[in-house]
Sequence to fold (151 residues):
Amino acid sequence: MEDIFQKIDQDLKEAMKARAEVRLSAIRMIKAALKNRSIEKMGQLSADEVISALSSLAKQRRESIEQFLAAGRTELADKEKQELEVLQEYLPKQLSAEEIDEIIKAAIAECGAVSPADIGKVMKIVSPKTKGMADGKAVNQRVKELITPAS
Fold:
């Protein structure tokens, strides 16, 4: 787990040297969030806890992007997009839409889901398999689309 912290420190130094302002602020934000989580836990973070913290930050960025675009603040949305790109460098590789669909279809078959009332059952199986590798909101939306028959 130390290697991710070393990578963050190394990237921070490189961003300082390159005077990459947005990248620098994003890496500082990541470092602060991980340090705060570590303090809350009163110990070292596990790999899952680091991924969880980074996933939360990524989720916050996605939500901010949506809100800024809805408000017509494209310059702020662009800054959030750049921060999200930096964040994703530290997260596991994101799943493709096809990979997510495969996981969802397998989960639907596994629990025998047939109606929108079964979304919770499907998400209980899908969530651990996509944690940190896909946006939970997008996965939930896709589950709804795959369970609800087209009328």
The domain at 97-147 is CATH 1.10.10.410 (Arc Repressor Mutant, subunit A). Helices lie at 2-18, 21-41, 47-70, 74-88, 97-111, 119-130, 136-147. Residues 57 and 87 are 8 Å apart (CA to CA).
